[in-house]
Amino acid sequence: MLELQHIKKTFGDKVVLQDIDITIQSGEIVSLLGPSGCGKTTLLNIILGLVQQSEGRLLYEGQDISQQSMQLRGFNIVFQDFALFPHLNAYDNIVYGLKNKKQQMSKQQIQEYIDFLELQPHLTKKIHELSGGQKQRVAIARTLVMQPKVLLLDEPLSALDGVIKESIKERIQQIAQQFNLTTIIVTHDPEEALTLSDKVLIINDGSVAQFGTPREIIQQPKNAFVEQFILKQLYIKRHNIYQLFGEQHD
Questions:
Q1: E strand or H helix at 54, and its extent?
Q2: Is there a single domain that holds both residue 133 and residue 161?
Q3: Does Membrane show up as a keyword for this record (predicted)?
Q4: pLDDT given at position 212
Q5: Is 214 inside a domain boundary?
Q6: Does 137 lie in the same domain as 23?
Q7: CA–CA dist 46, 70 (Å, integer)
Q8: What Rg value do the Cα atoms of the chain yield, rounded?
């Protein structure tokens, strides 16, 4: 369980995040959703340990990790641009981080992740030879072999289209379920958040606009911002979303 208790972040006189107070259960997929500049990426970096909060506490499994370094937290991130090494093949990218890890994984354990993500045919390929979806799966495999306590994903689907995007969504859900891995995702896309996540944290101007299940957000938006940001952006695709949650709107 990951608890964010009254998190505040300021840069100089500017308040970027204010009173973020939520609890994320083990194995949940939670999306941080909101317009550009709302503070969602800053919050992701605070959870990772890359940025220090100005006020508030972070607790993981009841332990205060607010002052712990990124390395000690044991959380890992998949970046939006994948951040793969172009001079290495797919396999070497996957195992790269294990060089400095004290507790080594066996080859069998590594192979299990490779098989789970269906990467075996692509292991000897250089990064430029991979499709967008294959690059994303390599980036996810590289993170999973580090055995993170929490998996963080920064706009994981933004560079993908159509069938590939749906495939990666399914993979993320399978990973969270099979490995009971708490997964936190930054996205600006309401449809992506609502169809991928167990819970969605909607941020507006650095504050919590609503935190709840997709069904709660669709059926009971807490304020005008949530209703406008979610429902208006989904207007064209509304039938797909409403069918998913058993609602009909005209």
A1: none
A2: no
A3: no
A4: 96
A5: no
A6: no
A7: 9
A8: 18
**Residue 104, phi then psi, degrees to nearest 5:** -80, 150
pLDDT tier at 236, thresholds 50, 70, 90: very low
> Sorting pLDDT into bands at 50, 70 and 90, what band is 237?
low
Beta strands 55-60 and 2-11, pairing class: antiparallel
pLDDT, mean over the chain = 88
- Do 9 and 62 lie in a common domain? yes
Of residues 186, 183, 244, 182, the one with CA closest to residue 217: 244
Residues 14 and 136 grouped into a single domain: no
150-184 pLDDT, tens digit each: 999 998 887 777 788 888 888 899 889 988 999 99
In single-letter form, the type of residue at position 146 comes to M
How distant, in Å, are the alpha carbons of 17, 195, 208, 210 from that of 204?
Answer: 9, 20, 6, 9
CA–CA separation, 169 and 206 (whole Å): 27
- Taking only the tens place, the pLDDT of each residue in 76-97 is 999 888 889 999 999 999 998 8
Domain of 15 in residue numbering reads as 1-74+149-208
Q: How confident is the model at residue 19 (pLDDT cuts 50, 70, 90)?
A: very high
The torsion angles phi and psi of 126, rounded to 5 degrees, stand at -75, 160
Residues 51 and 155 in one domain: yes
